[in-house]
Amino acid sequence: MGKHLVLIGGGHAHMMTLASLRRFTAKGHEVTVIGPSPYHYYSGMGPGMLAGMYRPEEIRFATRRVVEGQGAAFVLGKAERIDPLTKTVHLENGGTIPYDVLSCNAGSFVPHSMPGAETFRDLFPVKPIEKLMAARHRLLELAAGKAIRLAVIGGGPSALEIAGGAWRLLHDAGMAAPAITVFAGKRFMGRLPEPVRIRAYHSLARRGIEVLEGAYVRELGKGSVVLDTGAEHPADFTFMALGIQPSPLFTDSGLPVGPDGGLLVNEYLHCPKHPEIFGGGDCIHFAPQPLDKVGVYAVRQNPMLCHNLLATLQGDKLRRFSPGGDYLLIYNLGDGTGILRKRGLILSGRPAFWLKDYIDRRFMRRFQALE
Ligand SMILES: Cc1cc2nc3c(=O)[nH]c(=O)nc-3n(C[C@H](O)[C@H](O)[C@H](O)COP(=O)(O)OP(=O)(O)OC[C@H]3O[C@@H](n4cnc5c(N)ncnc54)[C@H](O)[C@@H]3O)c2cc1C
After folding, report:
1. 9 in ligand 1 pocket by Cβ < 6 Å?
2. Is any ligand 1 atom within 6 A of the Cβ of residue 156?
3. Where in the chain is the domain with CATH 3.50.50.60?
4. Whole-structure pTM value
5. Are 88 and 276 in contact (CB under 8 A)?
6. Euclidean distance between CA atoms 106 and 307, whole angstroms
7. CA 316 to chain centre
8. CATH class held by domain 123-242
9. Residue 26 contacts by C-beta under 8 Å, 6 or more apart in sequence?
């Protein structure tokens, strides 16, 4: 008899499962996908979309179309809680969806609670990626009337890409020298190898983007950023790029989680206490070894997650996920150049961006499913 598979989120770890839903429905299983938008936006191209290098339609996957086109159901909404005892997903709108097998790819969020944050008008976290569309419109609106000061709070790769993308946006809108400051905390790109750090720093500095190190942002004033040293910097618009945390769905549901609050899964990508609950991407804590919150791992999990979901429904053998070795990362600096890093190899310049653009567009073509 057919069973009910429910997918929470149509993120990067579910791409292959979403593209293969017909295999599930053909075996008599019912499939329901829950997502807050008919589209899923590709984070790797988000800063490029902010910059105006890509149109929003170029960086999104048509999740609803993919799901419904294969005889499965798409429910527009957000999962709020999972009850593993009754095997039910509770939605924010009060609805409930029962499951036999559940897979979670609900991603991560940028914490942006900080004293003063509620009174600061133009504050945008860098996730969800679709919010960058609104940020782009608002930045252009503000910059049309006056010279604005832009703050980027955070000192990692997303702060780098967002600062570079915002510079490109404002530069192309006619602001000769946009006033952008990156409030990088202790050390800008401090977790990356020194040659990457230096290249990133120089790329921003060449364009007049200031990077402040050695202090943390303590609070936001009405139109300012206040550091723990007491120094106050005027800011009209702020991006929060403070690092990401797994969706709160699992702690809110009382499910087993890792130290970061991600759903605790083993090498089969399921929760040992509730083996019918699977997960992938930023929202999991992979028990065998903590994984960086990068899309690369979500993408690598695709084949195993897809196989194991069908195998669980069919009563077949599961496959193990192995995270693999070092991964290629390329940062889009917003000026047509990039920084590439893989093992000891570090390259910067136009070819690095061209390669990122090629890889990202190829990934989009494979799963995008737009008309
Ligand atoms: C600015 C920026 C740039 C980045 N660039 C790169 C890069 O170039 N390369 C790289 O490898 N990594 C990059 N990352 C990291 C990358 O964002 C994540 O690792 C990646 O998005 C993880 O994919 P995911 O599918 O787990 O989560 P997400 O991409 O967050 O997808 C989760 C999906 O679940 C949906 N969802 C969320 N909550 C719920 C809910 N309660 N119910 C139902 N659905 C829900 C969301 O709408 C979304 O569609 C970047 C991150 C940022 C912030």
Report:
1. yes
2. no
3. 4-36+77-109+244-325, 123-242
4. 0.94
5. no
6. 19
7. 32
8. alpha beta
9. none
Cα 41 to ligand 1 centre (Å):
8
Homologous superfamily of domain range 4-36+77-109+244-325: FAD/NAD(P)-binding domain (3.50.50.60)
Distance from the alpha carbon of residue 370 to the mean position of ligand 1, in angstroms = 20
Q: Which residue has the CA at smallest separation from atom 14 of ligand 1?
A: 294
Residue 367: strand pairing partners: none
Q: What is the pLDDT along the chain (371 residues), one digit of tens a residue?
A: 799 999 999 999 999 999 999 999 999 999 999 999 999 999 999 999 999 999 999 999 999 999 999 999 999 999 999 999 999 999 999 999 999 999 999 999 998 788 999 888 899 999 999 999 999 999 999 998 788 999 999 999 999 999 999 999 999 998 877 899 999 999 999 999 999 999 999 999 999 999 999 999 999 988 999 999 999 999 999 999 998 999 999 999 999 999 999 999 999 999 999 999 999 999 999 999 999 999 999 999 999 999 999 999 999 999 999 999 999 999 999 999 999 999 889 999 999 999 999 999 999 999 987 65
What's the token pair of residue 170? 């404002």
| 332 Cα to the center of ligand 1, angstroms | 17
- Indicate whether residue 269 lines ligand 1 (CB < 6 A): no
- 107: Cβ below 6 Å to ligand 1? yes
